[in-house]
Specification:
The chain is an alpha/beta fold. The chain is built from 28 helices and 17 strands.
C-alpha cells in the first residue's frame, strides 16, 4: 500500500513480486497466481477485472515466470489498451505489449508484408464511406446518408464474420439478420467496393485482420516467428470477440494453451458488429482443463444499485442469461435508485438538468456525473437543458485527449520551456511547477476563467485546463518535480493514452458508456420503443437491449436515476409506457422475481417537472403560423425557427452586453447566465413583469431571483447590470 501522503494518481512501483499481490481479494489473487495453462475469468461489472489481469501479468513478469516482451494483451479500444499499459507501467511491467486486435495485427502486417507479399503494404483507408458511396453509384443504387452509413456497417459485419460478397444474401437469410436494404443489392455494392479497393491498392481496417490471418495461415515460417515472439496471451472483454478475431487469436496461439481470457456474457452489447459471447461461453468446452475464476465482488456500486442490476438480469432469457453472475456489493449502503416519470421530453430534460445541478451544488463533481441515452439523437435536448441550468457538459466520442491539436501544441510549448529552463523569461515570475505550466499554457489560450459559450473554443480551453490540473496533481505527488519531469510524465501518458479527466457532465449513448463509471448516472428516455429500441424484433435482440440497460445501471457508483416521459412534446397524448425491463423493479409495477443484495425496492416513482412541481402543459404552438412546436429551441422562442422574428435587435444587444458583464463578475461562461436562445426569446417578447419573464423557457425560479430585476429593467429601457440579485 502507498503512503497516505502519496497521490493515487502517481503510485509507487511495488518493490517485490509478492508486493504486487497486496490489496487483491481472494478471487483476484487466484487470477494473479494462475499463470499456467488456459484461464477463464468470468468478471461481473465493477469487480476489478482490469486490476486482476494487470496484477496477474505484473506478478508473472516480476516473478520471472513471464518475459515482458513475450506477453501480448489485447482488448477492444485504444482507451482500454492505454489504461492497461498505464497500470502495467505503474506495477513495474512496462515492457508488456497491450494493444487492440487491429493495432497488433497492423504492426505484424507492416513488418511481414515485404517478406510475405513483396513491396509496400497498401495504403490504409481511414474512412470507407466515400468508397462505399462510389461503389453504390457504380451499381446504380442510390443511397441517402443514413442508408450509406448502414450499408457500410453491413460490409464491416460481413467481413468480420468472414462472409464474402457472393454469400452475403444467403448468410443474412440464414441468420435472420435485418439488412438495411435488399441483401442482393448490398452484396453487389460489397463486391464492387472490394474491386475498387483492389484497383486503387488500398485496404480497410477489416482487411488488416483478414490479411494477417491469410499470411499466418499460408506462411508457417512467419507464424512460427510470431509464436516465438509471443508465448502468452491475455484477452480482455472476451465476450466481444468476432469470428475473425477468434481466428487470428487461434493462429497466434498455435497448439499452445498459454491463454487468459476475461469477460462477462451479460455485457455483450455489440452483436451488430459481429461480436458474440459464444467463444467465452464455449471456452471450457474447447479447453476442458481450464482454470475458471468468477469475480462477483462489486467494488463500484452501492448495494442499492447492485440490487437493481441483479434484478434486471434475473428476468433475462437465453444462453447468456444462464451464465449470469450475481453481483455482491462491497460498498456501504447508499440512496435508493430514483424512478421519475415526466409528462414530456422537454420536461424530462429540464428535470434531469435540475437534479444534476443540485448534485453539483451538493458537492458531486460535474465530471463524476453522466446522462446516458439510447441513441445520440437524444442528446440535443439535454445539451440545451444543461446549458440553461448553467451546468458544463461534454459529449462523449471526441478524439483521444493526447491526439487533440491543442494538447499536442501545449506539449511542444512545455517541452521548449523545459529545455530553455531559466533562460525563458516567461517563467521569471513563476514560483512553482503549476505556475510555470499556467504561464506556458497562457500563450496557447488557457485563461483563469473559461470562455463564454460552447464549441471548439470551449473544448480547447477544457483540454488545456485538464493539463493544468494534471500539473497541480503531479506537483502535490512529487514535491520538487521540475518542468522536465512533468514533460516526461506527459510523454509516458501519451504513449499509454492515459488522459486526465476533462471536467463537465458527460452526455453519452449507452454503447459509448461501456467501460466507464461515474458517481451519479441518469438513464433517460426509458420508454418502450427506445428501450428496447423499436427495431429489436427477435428474442435475442430484445435480450441484448436488456443487457445494454444493465450496462447503463452498472455505470453508477452511488446515485442512479431512471426516467421516462409519457409524450414527446408538451400537450401531446400521454401514450408512452416505461420500458418492460423495469417491470417488477420500479415501484407499482408488480413483484420482483428475485431479491438480491440491497433489500427490497423502497424507492417510489416520482412525477417530475422542470422545477420539481407537477404541472400540466398544453401543446406549444408557433405564435406566427400556429404550428405545434416539438423542438426545444423552437418552443423556447414560441415560434418556428424559420418563421419571421420580431426581435428588438437593440434590446438583444443590450442584453448580450449585460450578460457578458455579469458572467465576468461571476467568473462563469456567458451561457451560464442565459443562452443566446433565451436572450432572443426575451428580446422578442419584451416581458414587463416577473411572471411574464418566468414564463420564458430557460429562465426558471433560480434565474428569475438572480437576474430578473436586471433583465426587467433593461427591457423597460432603464440602465441594467446592477448586479443586484440572489446568488
Amino acid at each position: 500500500m502507498t503512503a497516505a501522503t502519496h497521490s493515487t494518481l502517481f503510485p509507487r512501483v511495488p518493490e517485490t513480486a509478492d508486493a504486487v499481490l497486496d490489496g487483491l481479494d481472494p478471487e483476484q489473487r487466484e487470477v494473479a497466481l494462475a499463470l499456467g495453462g488456459p484461464v477463464c475469468v468470468l468478471a461481473g461489472a465493477g469487480t476489478g477485472k482490469t486490476r486482476a489481469i494487470t496484477h496477474r501479468i505484473a506478478y508473472g513478469v516480476r516473478a520471472g515466470v513471464l518475459q515482458p516482451a513475450g506477453v501480448l494483451a489485447v482488448t477492444f479500444t485504444n482507451r482500454a489498451a492505454g489504461e492497461m499499459r498505464g497500470r502495467l507501467r505503474q506495477l513495474g511491467a512496462g515492457g508488456v505489449q497491450a494493444r487492440t486486435f487491429h493495432s497488433a495485427a497492423l504492426r505484424q502486417l507492416q513488418f511481414f508484408w515485404p517478406k510475405a507479399v513483396g513491396g509496400e503494404l497498401p495504403r490504409l483507408l481511414e474512412r470507407k464511406v466515400q468508397l462505399v458511396a462510389e461503389a453504390a453509384a457504380r451499381c446504380r443504387i442510390r443511397l441517402d446518408r443514413n442508408e450509406l452509413r448502414d450499408v457500410t456497417g453491413e460490409i464491416e459485419w460481413a467481413k468480420v464474420t468472414q462472409t464474402v460478397p457472393a454469400d452475403y444474401p444467403a448468410v443474412v437469410a440464414k441468420s435472420h439478420r435485418d439488412a438495411p436494404r435488399d441483401p442482393a443489392e448490398i452484396g453487389q455494392i460489397y463486391a464492387t467496393y472490394e474491386q475498387l479497393k483492389r484497383d486503387r491498392s488500398v485496404i480497410d481496417f477489416e482487411d488488416v485482420l483478414l490479411l494477417t490471418v491469410g499470411i499466418l495461415q499460408d506462411r508457417h515460417d512467419i507464424a512460427d516467428q510470431v509464436r516465438r515472439q509471443y508465448q502468452h496471451f491475455v484477452v480482455d472483454e472476451y465476450q466481444d470477440v468476432s469470428p475473425l478475431q477468434q481466428r487470428l487469436l487461434d493462429l497466434w496461439l498455435g497448439d499452445r494453451d498459454s491463454l487468459c481470457v476475461v469477460g462477462d456474457a451479460s455485457q455483450t452489447i455489440y452483436s451488430f458488429t459481429g461480436a458474440t459471447p459464444d467463444h467465452l461461453l464455449n471456452f471450457r468446452t474447447r479447453h476442458p482443463g481450464a482454470t475458471v475464476v468468477k469475480l462477483v465482488r462489486d467494488y463500484r456500486s452501492t448495494p442499492q444499485v447492485v440490487h437493481l442490476a441483479n434484478g434486471l438480469l434475473s428476468q433475462a432469457r437465453g444462453r447468456a442469461a444462464e451464465h449470469r453472475l450475481e453481483l455482491i456489493s462491497q460498498r456501504d449502503p447508499g440512496p435508493e435508485p430514483v424512478h421519475t416519470e415526466y409528462a414530456d421530453e422537454p420536461a424530462e430534460a429540464e428535470g434531469t438538468a435540475r437534479r444534476v445541478r443540485d448534485l453539483v451544488a451538493a458537492g458531486v463533481p460535474a465530471g463524476e456525473i453522466a446522462v446516458l441515452y439510447r441513441i445520440n439523437a437524444q442528446s440535443e435536448v439535454y445539451e440545451q437543458a444543461l446549458a440553461d441550468a448553467g451546468v458544463p457538459y461534454q459529449l462523449r466520442g471526441a478524439e483521444r485527449f493526447f491526439e487533440r491539436q491543442e494538447v499536442r501544441e501545449a506539449g511542444i510549448a512545455l517541452r521548449g520551456a523545459a529545455r530553455a529552463g531559466g533562460n525563458d523569461s516567461l517563467l521569471d515570475d513563476a514560483e512553482d511547477l503549476p505556475a510555470q505550466v499556467r504561464a506556458v499554457l497562457s500563450t496557447k489560450g488557457w485563461t483563469t476563467e473559461p470562455p463564454a459559450g460552447s464549441g471548439a473554443v470551449r473544448d480547447r480551453w477544457e483540454s488545456l485546463a485538464a493539463l493544468v490540473r494534471l500539473a497541480e496533481d503531479f506537483a502535490r505527488a512529487r514535491p520538487g518535480a521540475t518542468l522536465s519531469d512533468l514533460v516526461a510524465e506527459l510523454d509516458e501518458r501519451a504513449a499509454a493514452q492515459h488522459a486526465p479527466t476533462v471536467q463537465g457532465v458527460t452526455l453519452a449513448s449507452l454503447h459509448a458508456a461501456k467501460g466507464l463509471e461515474w458517481d451519479a448516472v441518469f438513464l433517460v428516455g426509458l420508454t418502450e420503443g427506445m428501450m428496447p429500441i423499436t427495431y429489436a424484433k427477435t428474442d435475442e435482440q430484445v435480450e441484448e437491449e436488456r443487457r445494454l440497460l444493465y450496462v447503463g445501471v452498472t455505470r453508477a457508483r452511488v446515485h442512479l436515476t431512471l426516467s421516462w416521459s409519457l409524450s414527446r412534446s408538451p400537450g401531446g397524448r400521454p401514450s408512452r409506457r416505461p420500458t418492460r425491463f423495469l417491470k417488477g423493479l420500479r415501484p407499482g409495477s408488480g413483484a420482483l422475481g428475485t431479491v438480491g443484495q440491497g433489500g427490497g425496492v423502497r424507492s417510489s416513482v416520482e412525477r417530475g417537472s422542470a422545477d420539481g412541481r407537477r404541472r400540466t402543459r398544453g401543446p406549444v404552438r408557433c405564435r406566427v403560423c400556429g404550428t405545434t412546436l416539438t423542438e426545444a429551441g423552437a418552443m423556447k422562442l414560441m415560434r418556428c425557427e424559420d418563421c419571421p422574428s420580431d426581435m428588438d435587435e437593440g434590446l438583444y444587444e443590450r442584453l448580450r452586453d449585460w450578460r457578458a458583464e455579469r458572467a465576468g463578475e461571476l467568473g462563469q461562461p456567458a451561457y451560464c447566465v442565459f443562452t443566446d436562445k433565451t436572450l432572443m426569446a426575451i428580446a422578442e417578447r419584451v416581458p414587463a413583469t416577473g411572471g411574464e419573464l418566468a414564463s420564458i423557457a430557460g429562465v426558471g425560479t433560480r434565474k428569475l431571483n438572480r437576474f430578473g430585476a436586471d433583465v426587467l429593467a433593461i427591457c423597460a429601457g432603464e440602465e441594467g447590470g446592477t448586479g443586484v440579485g440572489e446568488d
